[in-house]
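Propose amino acids for all 77 sites.
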């Protein structure tokens, strides 16, 4: 399974999303037999990389917020 494939939310993976949608359109029946597995695997890998980068960025933001909070608390004491 994959998340909703809205192109505006997954800007780095647009070409993979479009390739999978095109494959599904071109292979309405054989898509159930694995005709689009290569396109789906490529898209899944892109989404996985995007999620990993997002996780790292979020961790950095959280660390900065935590440090700022700690400084504010120390200043109040």
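Proposal:
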């Amino acid at each position: 399974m994959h998340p909703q494939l809205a192109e505006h939310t997954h800007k780095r993976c647009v070409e993979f999303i479009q390739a999978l949608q095109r494959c599904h359109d071109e292979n309405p029946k054989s898509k159930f037999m694995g005709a689009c597995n290569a396109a789906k695997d490529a898209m899944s890998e892109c989404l996985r990389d995007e999620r990993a980068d997002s996780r790292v960025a979020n961790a950095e933001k959280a660390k900065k917020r935590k440090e700022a909070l700690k400084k504010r608390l120390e200043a109040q004491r």
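Residues 37-76 form the longest helix (40 residues). The chain has a mean pLDDT of 91.
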